[in-house]
């Protein structure tokens, strides 16, 4: 209903989007942002489809309230933009609406900050209905604070016969329409959230564990997901290659199958608007039985990436879920590392070294997952009579039967592997002979 009304909103005060871009990075003496953050920004820009012509860096104690950078550096960039016909300037920081407006007036090209860049990538990657709604919600919340970027006609009041005098400005109209659209999207997302909850309850009734892949973006989660489930989820060497969550069945040695969920990758300084918008999707992570924290073992900033993921898990209240670290891409480590499992002091797996692309160590990973899930399950031998076929069928439906034999009297002797509380509940409702 409001989409047509909002078409103009998405276009006003926007220069034509191009691919010739520059990146602006400020090194603050009081912060720890370094070259890795800059390299990541360049990867983000390339993932968004931009061609980076140049990178401008400067040192400051604190951001300038008007231009974020100093006026001298701003003039230098403006001259370069004019000479090279640059179409977009990307700041590797968070800009205020006023700073964006002032910079665009000076540069005469479109200016976006880190949050706007990530939102653009997410908009390109979203494929499902829910994913598109979540991205649009994040975009609207982000852009609603930037309506001051509009042309001067937005400040004019509506006029005409019967409408002269104090009235609603175009700017106020746009804000009202955006609020209505946000309310509409939130209602749709609430419905999707309820549907997801029903799916989770269905999985709970089948007593299957849910395992979620989490990790820094481009750590190889989707490649690992495909290798473990023989799926064809899109996987590519780029940031945020996949956005929408996917769930498939995962076979484990000596126990029932589990559900494996592939989730969106995390990143340092992940915008809070995205965390809030994707809360329903991230609910899958919070309610998982086990998290597989996938890391690029060959990455120079391995520890920093690990801490960034843990920070996001804390933000979405999933830090308490059991974790197994998966050190991926061992084929890229120069010194060479063979697939193996690291155990903690209690003899539990805490880290598995693999190469998802080469298929190395996948059996070890399944073994480690099974070891961590096994304490939650109960291996039992039960005897079912010929009249208890319904209970046998229920156990097969849950993939809980490991082995089955028949005795001389025609009874089924079953070796069952199932969560303790679920097995006890089934036996109470269908007592064996």
Automatic annotation (TrEMBL):
Ranges in coiled-coil conformation: 182-209
Keywords attached to this entry: Coiled coil, Cytoplasm, GTP-binding, Magnesium, Metal-binding, Nucleotide-binding
One example GO MF annotation: ribosome binding
Subcellular location: Cytoplasm
Binding site for Mg(2+): 222, 242
Required co-factors: Mg(2+)
Pfam families: GTP-bdg_M (PF16360), GTP-bdg_N (PF13167), MMR_HSR1 (PF01926)
Signal peptide residues on this chain, from the entry's feature table: none
Binding site for GTP: 215-222, 240-244, 262-265, 328-331, 355-357
Domain Hflx-type G: 209-377
Location, primary (coarse class): cytoplasm
Function: GTPase that associates with the 50S ribosomal subunit and may have a role during protein synthesis or ribosome biogenesis.
Family recorded in the similarity comment: Belongs to the TRAFAC class OBG-HflX-like GTPase superfamily. HflX GTPase family.
HAMAP family (alphabetical): GTPase_HflX
Subunit structure: Monomer. Associates with the 50S ribosomal subunit.
Protein name in UniProt: GTPase HflX
Organism: Desulfurispirillum indicum (strain ATCC BAA-1389 / DSM 22839 / S5)
